[in-house]
Amino acid sequence: MKPLARLFALFACLVLAAGCANVPEESQPVAVPQQELGQPVNPDVPQPAKDLDALTVVRDFVRASAQPISNNAAARMYLDEAAGKTWTPGKVITIIDDVFATVPAAGVDTTANPNEVNVVLRGTGLGTLREDGAFISLRTPVELKLLVRRQSDGQWRITNPPPNLVMPYSDFTANYVRVQAFFFAQDSNTVVPDLRYVAGKPQTGLAGRVVGLLLAGPSTSLVGAVRNLLPEDANTEGNVTTAPDGALVVPLTGVADQTADVRRLIAAQIVLSLQSVTTNRVRLLSDGAPLVDGHEDWVPSDLPSYTALASPSADQPGLVTVNGRVRSLGDGSLISGPAGQGSGYQVASAAQSIDGRQLAIVEYADGRQRLRVGQFGKDAAAVDLAGATMTRPTWRPTATADGSGEVWTVVDGQTVVRALRTPDGSWVPQVVNADEILQVGPISVLRLSRDGARAAVVAGGQLLVASVVRTQDSVTLRAPRILQGGTLGGVVDVDWLSQDTLVAATTMPSQPVVKIPIDGLRLDPFNISNLTLPVHAITAAPGRSIVVADDGGLWTASDVGEVWRPHPHSFGGNASPFYPG
């Protein structure tokens, strides 16, 4: 079975088969080490309202399933006594749209017993939350059939709860907290966020659950794309607790033999990952002593920047390709060198390195397209690579002295290629394994994340995110995820707004520009005021205004809901803007 086929087969269990619940064979994520050990929580769980009908019992049960505390006690209140004692939901959650139906079963599924009702829940699955706390976007029909029986006290209760938790989106987001668990890029000390979700209650165990995510390592899709500086035998000595002086104490074990530099990086992982769930000082201990000598308590401002390589500097205003030449987005002027002055190249598309010192261009040459790479403002050397079409180049940064990294493009929609700089300054192309993505469709856009760990891809008009996994002998785009499949289509361009958020341009009249997290859990359309559809290009970067191109020129906005404003330099309707990266 091919890799992407296996990917979709993994989720095939979500689809209804012969009237069975179409939820995965696993269920609610179990908190990693540190979950409230020694801190039993016994809240007064409210009983269901009296005299609920069978349909409402099922609806309320599904909503209550989003409350994970006390072993899903709130949901158990809707089960009969036997089911309430034996129900052990699995470790993956199915999240459904807020609009769902509960109806009596029809036909052969009806029951003649007046004290029993087969209730069918029908909804649209948005995806699953895996055991590692990562959300996987997959839009698919969901159907559950639950037997509801009248009890001796006259109340309806469920007798056959599903083997896995199912909950509406709003209830999920009300009870689970999204966190960024930080790991490191493969060949630099750039941090890479891994979006995860943990139970938000009880609050006392929240920080411990986040630390547990780090100890368990990156989510499945990021394995091989990032480094975890916490060694495999690292753990915590007891719980993550709050000291009397207010510091959050993280008592690590198994890290004492790490070098001083590695322990500082471990400190960065933990402090950055905890910043979304606590404002307390973080006291990092290793076997009872400070993790980093002379520095026991930490706040995020104590850390140096670990995203410098992944963020264009403020003195790089961005560029735009228009009429075969490259201009500055800052003042509208033609850039120096043959790419701007028109004396050498007819530019189809281009990409500037993050540090601004390099420029990769795709040029029209002899009826085909060809890649060139060189210093900004100077002649660019031709790469031994050409095709009928080539996607706009994209840069992967490295920590090398020249920062030149790699340049990626896709030839004829089928061959992903990375060009590597050799010691003599030339660029040599190598093929990237993209088999899993190509099964979705031909690739029209590929944008590497500025930390180098992921790629955003448009394949067959759909938006995907894949991990960039590197070995000594090869590079693979692995574990692709279609984001908002069935909802988002006609995607024509995409860029990285931040390390965990994308913006995309589409041909959809109702949502020509959208913002979407890299896990695809939600979709936020931008205001369409002032745009002349269709939008054909988009660019974004951390701390920058989003720039889109339509038939009228360039438009800018800072976020969803903001009205698009004309760019100071419109350049006409065939402009394609791009920030470094």
From TrEMBL:
Superkingdom of origin: Bacteria
Entries under SUPFAM superfamilies matching the protein: 3-carboxy-cis,cis-mucoante lactonizing enzyme
Domain GerMN residues, every copy: 207-295
Pfam families: Germane (PF10646), Gmad1 (PF10647), LpqB_N (PF25976)
SMART domains to which the protein is assigned, alphabetical: Germane
Signal peptide: 1-17
Nucleotide-binding is among the record's keywords: no
Key word Coiled coil present: no
Keyword annotations from UniProtKB, A to Z: Lipoprotein, Signal
Protein name: Lipoprotein
